[in-house]
Structures are given as structure tokens and as C-alpha cells.
Amino acid sequence: MTSTEYIKPSDLSDLRHVMEEYKARATVIAGGTNLIPEMRNGERSPELFIDISDMTELSFIRENNGSIAIGAATTIAEVASSPVLLDSSPILASAAKQLGNPLTRNRATLGGNLANASPCADTAPPLLALDASVEILSPGGKTRQVPLSKFFHGYKFTDLVKGEILSGITFPKPNASTKGSHTKIGLRNAASICVASIAVILDMDGKTCRKARVAAGSVAPIPMRAYRVEKLLEGKEINATLLDECMAVLKEEISPISDIRGSLEYRSYVTAMILKRNIKRALK
Amino acid sequence: MMEKRNVHYTVNGEFIERFVEPNALLINVLRDGLHLTGAKYCCGTGQCGGCTVLVNGEPILSCLTLAVAVDGANILTIEGVAEPDGTLDPIQEAFLDNAAIQCGYCTPGMVLMAKDLLNKNPSPSEDQIREHIKGNLCRCTGYHRIVQAIKMCRE
């Protein structure tokens, strides 16, 4: 490991200041649960750490005017046990509960899980289904909002440019007619890396689906929305034929690969299967 | 140029001050700097829990934590679990009584996780115990005896 410097900003204005001053060299670190293994493998060698792990201004879960806001440095353990999230968006809390193990969850942060932009980021599919946006602090004191669906550009590649920092996540609080469901497939129960996951949010008008959000993890270079499946569901009554069509369309929409955790064929099969199960479970 | 930084901790009740490199991991400061070798540097990727220590009362992986990031913290390692006169903690006694140790490599992490769980929940169910030690791998005991030992310490 090589590294030269370390800065722990005391507050947000200090953070903006150091990001602007050192943008080309800065590597933001919070929990370090992705970054430090990458450094150990020689994949990254940061010159300068900007440590946001202790920034109270970036660690919060708030409900305000029908919207939920979560600070980027909020730990995954806090997301998993938050009464606000368990009540308003249990699919996010449940995905957080299944990330890594209790020890990693105590240090890993929600912002880090997204900024790392791994296709298997556990919190990404539920947040995509919840229509979340990320808040980004840009140089010059500006703040911009990017829908999470536009934030991931490719494998470990995001909308963030040098000098910017992901500071928070917001999403509209789902209304009472909205139902959600989420499944993560792993190879074991503890500390598993996602093989495939599905998050579904359905806004129902009786038996008719008014609005659908379907997101999938570990089956494309990025955590993805399944726009074609959403379109197929919206405005229709959900029945067995429609579910079969959704499964077929999802298989076309995803682009899984084969790796040590699963083959392309298995991922394709299981993702379609958990899509069906999650839609059914959401409707129960 | 790697400029060392001044950090201070309270480790097992003792005030400690050190100069560490900005990229030094807490596990290395504990093991090489303070000769507290109970916590193990095993997988280095957060999958095994061998490096578990309590920082400000929360269990963390010291192999994934920068030493500078926890400057000022109160740290408890396995060396601080027994009384200063050597009297073992009830959890340590229970591990011995249940033969919950074979090679002993995972034991420091397991004992600290058990301590953390019982601090937060004095009477956990077996499921809650198993859930809490999910991040700590043991390759000898099959977990059964470890779970038994923790169960014996319930209120």
C-alpha cells in the first residue's frame, strides 16, 4: 500500500474546501470496506484520503414532507435497523440487513455502497425501485441531484467527476397503495455476494398496476432498472399470463455473465423466477 | 513522502499515544505497535472476523479500518476482556467449559462478538446468536459449541 496523506474534514464546508483544493488526488473513504481490500490487491493506491466516516452532517435518516433523506455516511447497520426505513421502505432495510455481515455493516456506508458502483451493490436495486436520487456536492459550493437510474454509467463507473462527492440519497416516501418486495440470491446466508437480486415496487389501483418499478442486481454491468418489464406491467391487471410475459422480457433485458458465483444461464433463470415471486409477494 | 500522524486511543483502559502512517491499518497498529496479538490479520477483506475488536463499544474489522480514522477511540481487544488479575470473563469461562475452542484462531473475535451481543441483548435466542456471529468464521468447531457457550451466558 502506498499513500501519503489523510484529511478528516470537520464539517461540510471544510469538506467542500478540501475536495476543491485536492480534487485530482483525493480519494474519499468512509467505512473502507471496499477501498481497503482494493488497496490490498493493488487495484488502487490513493494519494490522499478524505475521511468522511465521522461527519455527523452526512450521517442521518430523515423523513420530511413526504420524502426520505439519508446521509451518505450513514452506516448500513443504521439503514438496516432504522424505524423510519423499516416502516416506509422495508425493501431497503431488508437489503441492507443482507449486505455482508454484522461487522462490515457497522462500518460500510450507504453512500459507499452506491459510489463503488459494483453491479452487486446490495442497496442499489431497492433504491432504484424507490425512484431514489443521489445528491452530489460539486466544486464551487454547488449541489446537484442525479436520479440513481442515471448515476451508474458502467462497471464501477459513475456520474461523479473528480472533486465531487456523493453526499446523500433521497426518495419519495412510498404512498399507502404502494407495495414492495425484494429478494437477494446468494450462495449462503452469511457474508454472501449477490448472485442475482430483484426489487419490485408496485402502485396498485385495485387489481390494476398504476405504476411499476423493477430493478435488478448482479445481472448487468450496473444495477439496472428493467424498463421494459415496468412498461409491460403498467396499466394492466396482473395475472399469470402477464407474469410469464414479464419473465420472458426480463430475460431479454438483462445481460448476465458467468462467473465463480453462477452461470449466465442460472442467473437468467433465477432472476426471472424471483421477479415472478416478488411481484406475487408484493401483491399479497 | 509519508508523514506520520499522531493518534491516541484508550486500549483496554490504558491511554496510548502513537505515530502512525496515514494508511496504517488498525490491526497492524494493535499487533505490531502495541503487541496485542489476540486479534488476527487473516483474510484482510472483511469475510472472516478474525480481526474483530470493539471500537467505542461497536464491533468492527480492524483489518479494514485505518488507524487514523479511529483516533481518540476507546478500543477493547481480547486482551482486555479478562480482569487485570487474570480472572476470566464469564464468556471466556463458558468457552472453556463448552470446549468451544480448538485451534483458537477465531476465538478472540467470537468472544468479542458474544460480549457485544450480550451487552445489547442479555437474553438472545439461538437464531439471534447465530445471526450475530455470521461474520466470524470458525473452521474447527462447527459453531455448535460456540453457540452453546454463548447460550450459557444468557440471563
What does the model show?
The complex is a heterodimer of chains A (about 280) and B (about 160). In chain A, the strands form 4 sheets. Chain A has a 5-stranded antiparallel beta sheet with strand order 4-5-10-6-7. In chain A, strand 6 and strand 7 form a beta hairpin. Chain A is built from 12 helices and 14 strands. Chain A has helices at about 10-20, 35-40, 75-80, 85-90, 90-95, 100-105, 110-115, 125-130, 150, 225-235, 240-255, 265-284, and strands at about 5, 25-30, 50, 60-65, 65-70, 135-140, 140-145, 150-155, 155-160, 165-170, 180-185, 195-205, 210-215, 225. Chain B folds into 2 domains: about 5-80, Ubiquitin-like (UB roll) (Roll); about 90-150, [2Fe-2S]-binding domain (DNA polymerase, domain 1). Chain B has a 5-stranded mixed beta sheet, with helices on both faces. Chain B is α+β, with helices and mostly antiparallel strands and about 160 residues long. At the A-B interface, helix 2 and helix 6 of A face strand 4 of B.
Quick overview:
Chain A is an alpha+beta fold and 284 residues long.
SSE map:
The complex is a heterodimer of chains A (284) and B (155).
Chain A: E1 5-7, H1 12-22, E2 26-29, H2 35-40, E3 48-51, E4 61-64, E5 67-71, H3 76-81, H4 83-88, H5 90-97, H6 102-107, H7 110-115, H8 124-129, E6 133-138, E7 142-147, H9 148-151, E8 152-154, E9 157-158, E10 165-172, E11 178-185, E12 196-205, E13 208-217, E14 224-225, H10 227-233, H11 240-253, H12 264-283
Parallel strand pairs in A: 1-3, 2-3
Antiparallel strand pairs in A: 4-5, 5-10, 6-7, 6-10, 8-9, 11-12, 12-13, 13-14
Chain B: E1 5-11, E2 14-20, H1 26-33, E3 52-55, E4 58-61, E5 74-76, H2 90-97, H3 107-120, H4 126-132, H5 144-152
